[in-house]
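INFO  loader      accepted 1 record
INFO  loader      residues=603
INFO  predictor   begin
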Amino acid sequence: MRLPHGHRPPPPCLHLLLFTALCFTVVKTAAHAPRTGSTVKDRIASVPRIMGTEVKDVLKQEPGSGVIALKEAMKYFDADFFNDSKLHEMEDGAKEFNIPAFRENRKLVALENGGLHNPSVLVFKSSWSGESKAKDSNRFDYPHTSTVHRPSNDEDIVFMSIVELGELIRTKKITSRELTDVFLRRLKRYSTVLESVVTCTEDLAYKQAKEADDLLEQGKYLGPLHGIPYGLKDIIAVPQYNTTWGSKTFKNQVIDMEAFVYKRLKSTGAVLVAKLVTGSLAYDDIWFGGRTRNPWNIEEFSTGSSAGPAASTSAGMVPFAIGSETAGSITYPAARCGATALRPTFGTVARTGVMSISESLDKLGPICRTAVDCAIVLDTIRGTDAGDPSSREIALEDPFHVDITELTVGYLDSAEMEVVKVLSAKGAKLVPFKLNYTVESVQSILNITMDVDMLAHFDNWQREGNDDDYEAQDQWPVELRRARLIPAVDYVQAQRARGRLIREIRESFTVDAFIGNVTDWELVCVGNLIGMPIMVIPTGFKSIEDPPKGGTRRRTTVTTGIYAPPDHDHIALALAMAYQSVTNHHKQRPPLDDLVPNDKIHT
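INFO  predictor   done
INFO  writer      dumping tokens
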């Protein structure tokens, strides 16, 4: 996810820039792959007419014309220091070496969009421990609940926690089939008004629910997710169902593979009831079917590309969902919609079978009602897979056995002080804290990293002109065109600056965790570049701006984040659980039926 920005006017001499870029670095090929062994002239001849001039005519122009264009274009690469002789040498080298090499590599790995195959060998490791291999990691020791009674109405059932629903199923007070019925009805009732659901996986859900019920009848209980319905962000592949990536270009796409995270959940008896909205190509909350809304205030949007998982969980349409984050796509919608969520340490959950934006930034994580639920889901989905070289077996400690009285917790100026007071009262040591680092280009490092990586995964999409059909023209289309002008050397420089940032943050991280604003853009960028985990927790509500004349129960949610060092997700989880053990903000229900005049619920 990126925060949207407005259009920028074209720079002067853009025609020269486009002309030169076409000649040297980003020649737009025909829809089919170029033939092996074709010459540079053959390949250039296949390029369509651009701005009234065919590229093959360039070769007929007088000597020096390409050098003039190249000299002008170099201004946009911050590299306008070459003399004419060197530029002529560069021109020849680009024609004879670069362009053929670019095309051969694209033919090998870039004809399919989405980055599902051929991951980069440049692998980012977020761990600060320096250990090459994690020690054995045991599964968490889940809490046992006292006797749970089945509520008499569906409205109370859908807002129960995973722990409570799991106990109802384990004790056979409700079947998975009955629970699936309840959530499918609610998905269908509210999906239109929230625009948060792409596909109800009804047939699959009933099949999986029956399997869960049959196993229980045989005395086989698979754990706390046995028979529990859930939703997946629609960048996660499930066979026989569309995986649309939120885009009209891909809305009929079926990917015949099981994503790692889906396989993990299926193995524990969980029941997939819906593919939930992702912003188009995982950018913000606009998708081919509309724009996802916030259950707590139906007149505003959810923000963030994990819009469907956050809105649907908050609205009681699923007990939990799996979202993803590259730069704010879990934290923003979870905060807006008042959900409890975990963005895990980078590499904790393998991303095999998931659309890729950036292989060094993308993360999968749970969006739930409670921190306890987040711990249960994380314990289920964490793990490594050969299809994701960045994934690791991380030896997380059990968050249910963390003694928070032994923790020193910092708080930023942006922290919600109620959380500080509660955790202090629970025995943690709270101290003022500030992250110290000298890198001033944090946001641009993230932009460069994310945009170049995304373009590598959607190179063919852009070359075929599909960006013209994109749902929000001021989002990916603008960013990915700009990414064409980022030289490889400056991409590498950005990663070196990222390394410096990580070292400085590590040195200044003198606490076990810290509390701070969850949607501060600088902090979002820092957290994602480093790969640190964060818990998003609701901490209260305030009045909405410009409420209807007749009054409303709608609210603006207040949230905060609990940040921990990489591989210390258990610390953030333990602190969030301690806070929620004595507060009830996370138990509140959004007023979905308390709409302003002219809003309609479709039933």
